[in-house]
């Protein structure tokens, strides 16, 4: 299927520019969204690294503070015990974790003698390197770092804390991913283990990008549309005027220049060109009229003079030559006048028009028949259309011994087809046969084909009506000539 039929807007200058801008803006916003997403991911990773490093460093400082506080409390207990004469060790402690360990666990940290990965867990080397770099900048001493991710519901430490802390038991907390970081301290001090929930990706990340894209689209598209309309509207008027001038070159109408300076200059140049072409066509008509008058007058005089020739055979040959010259001159003048007629197209029944031409040839005993005819009404120059039909039918009878005419409507066009049983035209010579004075037979004898202006006249008449003449060879032999007249904007009925 033709793209212009599917996307007519995309075929115009305005549509193509707007489409290119839309694609470019879409790609730009897509790249921007990717960069923003990458920056957000980098910020998430940086936040995770900093949070873990902060907890580890704070954990060490907190342990030192707790140790000092416990030492001072033990000293105070010892003093009170000595004053009372009691046990130097004071009241017995509860079994289980020490005060230090309970204090550390309260902050979500863990101290252990070992750290082991669970089954199928993988280490995150990139995060390990990033955390090691930050800890090194803080002068935090360690032997090695192990970083992994696991589900909160599969971590013993988190499950135990969730039993005593209701705020941790939110819906779906067991499936929440957490980072588990183990840091081995030097001098056999064991492991420090930190757990951190994986930061959630913002669910509304795409919303700002979409809003930004829509705002840019509306603002940029609005401005571009106004600017391009200021450019394309005068171009559309110029295109319409050029089409109209091509069909009626005798009606030069000056356009009012509008739009940007370049477009105004183009329209002014077109107005000047139309005026020059119209003047040249007027001069051509005057010249051709003078040539026709100056040639036909002596030809008529010669026609009278040959009557005095006593030899009947020579007199007939002279008369035939004069008739050939007169007919060729008529064809040339007709070709020159096409498109310069002062009469408007009239509403005509193409079926009746075709039947009238067929009857003319039938009266002359020529093998011409109308095999198919749909009733089609159109606005045409009846005289010129009849002239085109006569030329095509004459060629079919002359070269193909018969002519079959059909009238149909196809794709919004009225199609008058003339077929014959002749030898056809070689495919590589079809285009050349439409040119003036081109013939398949070398002589200029009217009996064998004339001057070679018949097809040229038919093509010019079709083009005058916005249509075309198409020649093609039939598969079974013979030639098919199609006169196509567009029905868009004119009345038609089946």
Structure description:
This protein is 54% helix and 14% strand. By secondary structure, it is of the alpha+beta class. It has a 5-stranded mixed β-sheet with strand order 6-8-9-11-10. The longest helix has 72 residues, at 13-84. It is rod-shaped.
Describe, in short, the structure shown.
This protein is 54% helix and 14% strand.
Features:
494 residues, alpha+beta, five-stranded mixed beta sheet, four-stranded antiparallel beta sheet, 54% helix, disordered C terminus
- What portion of the residues fall into strands of 2 or more residues? 5-15%
C-alpha end-to-end distance: 27 Å
Helix content: 40-55%
- Low-confidence region ranges: 84-100, 442-446, 489-494
- The value of Rg in angstroms is 49 Å
Taking the sheet with the most strands, its summary is: 5 strands, mixed
**How many separate helices?**
12
Give me the count of strands. 11
Q: Kindly name the structural category.
A: alpha+beta
Estimate the mean pLDDT confidence: 77
Strand order of the largest sheet: 6-8-9-11-10
Element string (H = helix, E = strand)? HHHEHEHEEHHHEHEEHEEHHEE
Any idea what the shape is?
A: rod-shaped
């Amino acid at each position: 299927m033709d793209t212009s039929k599917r996307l007519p807007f995309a075929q115009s200058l305005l549509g193509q520019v707007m489409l290119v801008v839309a694609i470019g803006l879409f790609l730009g916003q897509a790249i921007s969204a990717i960069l923003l997403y990458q920056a957000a991911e980098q910020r998430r990773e940086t936040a995770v690294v900093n949070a873990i490093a902060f907890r580890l460093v704070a954990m060490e400082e907190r342990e030192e503070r707790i140790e000092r506080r416990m030492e001072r409390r033990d000293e105070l207990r010892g003093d009170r015990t000595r004053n009372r004469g009691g046990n130097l060790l004071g009241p017995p402690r509860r079994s289980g974790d020490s005060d230090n360990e309970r204090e550390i666990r309260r902050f979500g940290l863990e101290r252990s003698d070992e750290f082991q990965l669970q089954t199928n867990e993988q280490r995150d080397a990139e995060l390990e390197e990033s955390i090691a770099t930050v800890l090194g900048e803080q002068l935090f001493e360690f032997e090695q770092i192990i970083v992994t991710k696991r589900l909160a519901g599969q971590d013993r430490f988190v499950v135990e804390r969730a039993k005593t802390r209701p705020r941790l038991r939110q819906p779906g907390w067991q499936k929440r991913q957490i980072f588990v970081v183990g840091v081995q301290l030097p001098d056999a001090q064991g492991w420090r283990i930190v757990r951190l929930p994986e930061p959630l990706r913002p669910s509304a990340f795409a919303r700002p990008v979409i809003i930004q894209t829509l705002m840019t689209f509306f603002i940029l598209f609005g401005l571009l549309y106004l600017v391009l309309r200021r450019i394309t509207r005068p171009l559309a008027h110029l295109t319409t005027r050029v089409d109209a001038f091509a069909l009626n070159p005798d009606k030069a109408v000056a356009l009012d220049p509008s739009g940007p300076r370049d477009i105004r200059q183009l329209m002014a140049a077109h107005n000047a060109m139309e005026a020059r072409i119209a003047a040249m066509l007027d001069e051509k008509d005057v010249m051709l009229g003078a040539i026709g008058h100056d040639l036909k007058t002596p030809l008529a005089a010669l026609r009278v003079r040959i009557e005095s020739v006593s030899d009947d055979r020579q007199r007939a040959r002279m008369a035939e030559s004069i008739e050939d010259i007169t007919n060729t001159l008529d064809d040339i003048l007709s070709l020159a006048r096409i498109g310069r007629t002062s009469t408007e197209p009239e509403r005509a029944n193409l079926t009746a028009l075709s039947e009238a031409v067929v009857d003319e040839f039938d009266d002359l005993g020529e093998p011409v028949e109308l095999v198919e005819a749909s009733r089609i009404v159109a606005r045409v120059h009846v005289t010129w259309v009849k002239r085109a039909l006569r030329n095509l039918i004459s060629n079919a009878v002359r070269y193909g011994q018969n002519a079959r005419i059909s009238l149909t409507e196809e794709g919004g066009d009225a199609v008058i087809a003339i077929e014959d049983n002749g030898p056809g035209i070689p495919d590589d010579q079809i285009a050349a046969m439409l040119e003036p004075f081109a013939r398949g037979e070398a002589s200029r004898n009217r009996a064998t084909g004339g001057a070679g202006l018949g097809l040229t006249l038919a093509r010019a008449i079709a083009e005058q009506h916005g249509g075309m003449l198409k020649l093609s060879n039939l598969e079974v032999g013979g030639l098919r000539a199609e006169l196509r007249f567009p029905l868009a904007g004119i009345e038609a009925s089946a």
